[in-house]
Fold:
Amino acid sequence: MGTETSLRLPIINFSVEHVELKPGTPEWNTVRSQVRKAVEEFGCFEAQFDKIPTNIRKALFDAVQQLFDLPLQTKQRNVSKMSFHGYVGQLPALPLYESMGIDDANIPENVQNFTSVLWPNNGNPTFCETMQSYCDQLSELDGIIRRMILESLGVERYLEEHMDSTNYLLRLMKYKGPQTKETKLGLKAHTDKTISSILYQNQVEGLEVQTKHGQWFSAKPSSSHSFIVILGDCFYAWSNGRLHSPNHRVMMTGNEARYSTGLFSMPKAGYIVKAPQELVDEDQYPLLFKPFDHSQFLDFCYTQAGQTALSPLHSYCGL
Structure:
């Protein structure tokens, strides 16, 4: 199915001029209603957020490019016990795609450990400072969005538990330019298996999102301080289907490389994803999913059954 160019993501401004977004204020309530509408209809939106300084955003992509310029043997030292948390690349089905991961990149020690593996002589202090500053600021945006969603659902009493039950994975990604005007697959269509994802990219386009009705459209950010927020399967299940977890993909054309970052919030190991009782109504909102362990769900997603399922979440724990 082709890409529908007339559609675009909702744009939500989290940088209200001269006003700090605070719960209970009219500005907060206005943005909260915009977020709720967007995540119900699209499962994603463009967030304008200017708290990350220009110098940090520039340094971010300088650091990401420096990272992927390392020799392949060096990049492959980025290993993890969890699938797709370490180096991913050299895949015949995805020849344009490479990525690397840092668990809890908002914790300085974790980023330092990452750089000490890839730059064993003296680490990379500039890389560490850039990633920590970036993740600190972006995790603030994630917290605001998730609080707004829980408030809009009327279940804000679960906020502390909800935030404490998750951690962050920072993925740094590169898509090589296919060296052709023809459109080539960068990353296949999928839903994220997360609570939420916040994506940031350089000037090279490629991200596409699918509507509930099956139309694909370009998710091109409107400015350099815009981020794409996408809800994942875990939030969809936790909300008992009130929110949407959209299919998305990356399609590449031309010669330039696309660099992007993804800050993914996901349940901690052993956490059971379960819809709050307040979000279950036998008449209007019957329970859609059995409670599930996120780690075990991820393991299923990488089995043959999970890879071929139209919806791994429904196949794994749907009622």
